[in-house]
């Protein structure tokens, strides 16, 4: 019994001691958590300083709109509906100009249409008498809500006008239902529309004129960066494939060379590209982005870039899983041609990336691709010679697969070049008038020779 009681006492003392230590460590833990949170906030701001300015702009817009509520002369003109202006700022203000402009216009136009239809539905239902009015109002709400909800399934409406359709349903329902109990319905609708227009205009003006963030510029930079990542992968290909020590363990490319993994992010960039292109279509002309800028061409380039990244993913997996029984002698035969092809393709991709970023016409891409295509033909000849020499098939299959994927990557690089040249002509990049070129397009072995035509402007005396 005494041993049991002493054990219980020791357990209580231990719990008390641990609790005391935990309480003493609590302030230090709190300070560490605060410091960790501060570091996260600092890193978030350093990664993209525009996030800080965006937060300040939202605060400025809310402060300006709140003046409608604080000053009695302004409040008297709008009444309680002033809160709709504050709500509009909270909902409409987005990170980029295009997103804010799109939401603002969607909200304003949808509110106007829904208000007009709501007032019309109310007056039309009033003709049916006291008993028929609520029935007709319910019928109108049902029909318009059902039709509007169904229209959201159309891809074009879903992409650009989805928010406007939601606001249309909300506003029509509010006006139609509240109009049954409110006497001065037109004044109520006018106040709500006015405050929503004030809130939307405040957001749009601040978004455009106070440190604007253009979605079109972000889309251009994203496409340029994705193409650059493809070029980085090709630049490091030779070192990973040919100069790897045979005695070393087969280390994954993405573990040994982290920059070579950049292409992986390209595979998942479709959503971001489509979102930025949708926002960019709402933006007014600015800088070198003129009216009716070919935004869809950026999406086309992005799609081809992702297809090229898929080939690089397959090539990366092929390198990582390649068996050591592959013929080292055959690899040495093709090393020079492979190196030349990947090097020239990488230079072409880098120039295309720089061309999109600086909005200048690419001048030397054709030469790089022509040299790369000649190296590809040398690789095909090496494969035919290996077949004639009756080299053991199992020894050259892994290397042959790599060669095939490299040729496919070259074909996609040529398609990217063709699309960038088309973008350059459509968007009138700098230097596009100085030279016009026929861009080579990848084709089969039996293709006709590529022809490059360059026409320079000649100044007449």
From TrEMBL:
Domain of life, source organism: Eukaryota
What GO cellular component is one of the record's annotations?
Answer: membrane
Report how it sits in the membrane: Multi-pass membrane protein
Keyword terms: Coiled coil, Ion channel, Ion transport, Membrane, Transmembrane, Transmembrane helix, Transport
**A Pfam family reported for this protein in Swiss-Prot or TrEMBL:** ALMT
Q: Which InterPro entries match?
A: ALMT
Q: Which residues form a coiled coil?
A: 369-396
Q: What is its main location?
A: membrane
Transmembrane stretches in the record are 109-128, 134-154, 161-181, 193-215
Q: List where in the cell it is found.
A: Membrane
GO biological process annotations for this chain's record?
Answer: malate transport; monoatomic ion transmembrane transport
The similarity annotation says: Belongs to the aromatic acid exporter (TC 2.A.85) family.
What is the protein named? Answer: Aluminum-activated malate transporter
Naturally occurring in which organism (per UniProt): Papaver somniferum
